[in-house]
Design goal:
Length: about 350
């Protein structure tokens, strides 16, 4: 029997791409639950507007659409107060699990993050044997790790099969607050010649539809009848393009695809110096009440080696990134340029 899908956060960046892939492969029963009305054809997608911190509203939506498979992509991103991240990322996920139990859902795919095992130090070729850090790098990583652990612990309870996907460095079109607009705006303002750190650190980037592919693969393999069910149920998987690059190679790839030519002499600011500048910017921001454009968090993000081993996903999920970094950069740059004229 075909599944009925509910994408929690389906009006967002990754969730929207997952919905598009479900429709593209001909799924007849697709629904979205999000804070704002998702922009899909209501004749093809059932639209539910609600807050996942409201367990009743969420459970009612699950019941109304008859979901057998939930893909949970919603989260509060870094920067919000700890209490807000706990409410959304942790309690919201508990609500998803409870709604699944209450309505006989058999599959739950959770969107985690590669950063759940990041403690602020270099990680080269990290795999799923890595433990959560004793001291989390920030509240986002910590709350996502807590949520992931609850999802995995729910596997096998009340007929529910679960798994968790850990995307690394997600990018792509339609992400209005993500790395693509940030990097392209940097070039548009004439700042592409400034480099923070040495760029000798390798970093994983992942094109959004590759991550969406992984969600569909995982959902299919959570079926108890699938030959790889035992390899997937209750497991976490790193997802990337499998092609780590020096950090600054990626924005320069985007800039070339967008037609920006770096003509000014490159200015390299060493990591220790950048951290001092960021600290001073944070102090000024605290005094003025304005969010600084440069923070110590961003410096760590840019200057730390972080890439993962996706062998487990390749084996268990039959995952293989279909869109290369170069092609993803081209598509993303074209999308960004199209937004500048609207």
């Amino acid at each position: 029997m075909a599944d009925s899908y509910l994408v929690v956060g389906g009006g967002g960046f990754l969730g929207g791409h997952i919905v598009e892939l479900l429709l593209a492969r001909g799924e007849a029963a697709v629904a979205v639950f999000d804070l704002v009305p998702a922009k899909f054809d209501p004749d093809r997608v059932k639209i539910f507007v609600g807050d996942m911190t409201d367990e009743k509203a969420l459970s009612d939506a699950v019941k109304a659409c008859g979901a057998t498979c939930i893909m949970h992509t919603a989260a509060v991103l870094p920067g919000k107060p700890r209490a807000v991240q706990e409410l959304v990322n942790v309690q919201g996920t508990v609500n998803v699990i409870n709604a699944a139990h209450a309505n006989g859902v058999t599959k739950l795919v959770f969107t985690s993050s590669a950063s759940v095992v990041y403690g602020g130090k270099d990680q080269a070729g990290v795999d799923e044997t890595e433990k959560y850090p004793a001291v989390p790098f920030d509240d986002y990583n910590d709350t996502k790790a807590i949520a992931e652990s609850k999802v995995l612990a729910a596997n096998g309870t009340d007929g529910l099969c679960t798994c968790s996907l850990r995307p690394a460095g997600i990018f792509g079109p339609k992400d209005v607050k993500g790395p693509v607009p940030a990097m392209m705006n940097m070039a548009a303002k004439g700042n592409s010649h400034v480099q923070l750190g040495s760029s000798t650190n390798l970093y994983d980037w992942t094109y959004v539809t590759n991550i969406a592919d992984a969600h569909l693969l995982a959902a299919d393999r959570l079926a108890p009848t699938h030959p790889k069910h035992a390899l997937v149920a209750g497991q976490a998987f790193f997802i990337s393009n499998g092609d780590p690059r020096p950090w600054w190679d990626f924005p320069r790839m985007l800039w070339r695809a967008g037609g920006f030519v770096e003509t000014r002499r490159r200015v390299v600011i060493p990591r220790p110096v950048a951290l001092v500048i960021a600290f001073l910017a944070e102090v000024v921001g605290w005094i003025t009440g304005k969010e600084p454009t440069l923070t110590r968090f961003r410096i760590h993000y840019i200057c730390t080696e972080r890439w993962c081993n996706i062998s487990k996903a390749r084996e268990a999920l039959d995952y293989e990134p279909r869109v290369s970094l170069e092609e993803g950069a081209r598509i993303s740059a074209e999308w960004w340029k199209s937004q500048q004229s609207t």
